[in-house]
Write a structure and sequence with these properties.
- By secondary structure, the protein is α/β, with parallel strands linked by helices.
- It folds into 2 domains: 1-37, no CATH class; 38-223, 3-Layer(aba) Sandwich (Rossmann fold), CATH 3.40.50.
- The protein has 9 helices and 6 strands; from the N terminus they run H-H-H-E-H-H-E-H-H-E-H-E-E-H-E.
- It has helices at 2-11, 32-37, 50-53, 75-85, 89-107, 122-128, 132-144, 166-173, 200-211, and strands at 64-69, 114-117, 152-154, 177-179, 188-196, 215-223.
- The strands form 2 sheets. Strands 1-6-5-2 form a 4-stranded parallel sheet, with helices on both faces.
- The radius of gyration is 18 Å and the shape is globular.
- The N and C termini lie far apart (47 Å).
- Residues 133-222 form the Phosphoribosyltransferase domain.
């Protein structure tokens, strides 16, 4: 079996999705160099961090963390592009596992009851085939040993958010999410998304959960500073 694996890796090498270099046998999807060099926020080490401050005066969150800084042409942007647009859902799971190993010690101080992803509208979900935030959430769930729950729905397919101001984004998403599993009610929820830009989308999801009596902690794969 070992000989067969060596033969396969010789003629059909796996490449890092961050830098396109060949992976060592013990590496999976992303090389150690990319994980080391990707700009990390380390927000889990600071309670009053820049991500949590995005929500000051808007919603009450227990904690807010992000794995990477989202930088133009950076490693994180490249990885997220593969995750969202190159049909690599397994990358979301892998990055979720890696981030969970970073968060494990701090999250046990105030452990959530469920991990819930920001949902996609069913039309976009059907087109893409998976929810990238859900895949990231599943990886977190496996290592943190917190149950994964598909607890929210996106009721309306919104327009693209890229060119909108923060206020326009908030108006666009404030009424489009809903709770679809009453298990979340009055629980502590780890709400998970891929990227925070203005924070309007995840803020809207968090507000729905807060209205259901939940405490909310936020974790994302990347964040714009």
């Amino acid at each position: 079996m070992r000989i067969l694996e060596d033969f396969i890796s010789l003629f059909f090498p796996n490449f890092c999705l961050g830098c396109n270099r060949s992976l060592y046998k013990q590496e999976r999807l992303v090389c150690a160099h990319c994980i080391s060099e990707a700009a990390k926020t380390n927000t889990h080490l600071e309670h009053d961090n820049f991500i949590k401050r995005k929500f000051d005066g808007k919603i009450q969150v227990e904690n807010a963390w992000s794995y990477f800084y989202f930088q133009k042409d950076g490693i994180a942007q490249n990885l997220i592009h593969h995750l969202k647009y190159e049909n690599r859902p397994e990358l979301g799971v892998e990055l979720g596992k890696r981030y969970a190993s970073v968060l494990k010690e701090v999250i046990n101080l105030n452990k959530p009851d469920y991990i819930v992803p920001v949902p996609l509208h069913f039309k976009k979900l059907k087109k893409r085939g998976y929810n990238q935030s859900a895949e990231f959430a599943k990886g977190l769930s496996q290592v943190l040993e917190i149950p994964y729950l598909n607890g929210l729905e996106r009721k309306i397919a919104t327009e693209t958010q890229t060119a909108k101001s923060r206020m326009q984004r908030w108006e666009n998403v404030n009424t489009i999410f809903g709770v679809i599993d009453d298990s979340v009610v009055k629980k502590h929820i780890l709400l998970v998304d891929d990227v925070i830009t203005t924070g309007a989308t995840i803020e809207a999801c968090a507000q729905i959960l807060i209205d259901a009596g939940c405490k909310v902690t936020i974790a994302t794969l990347a964040s714009v500073r």
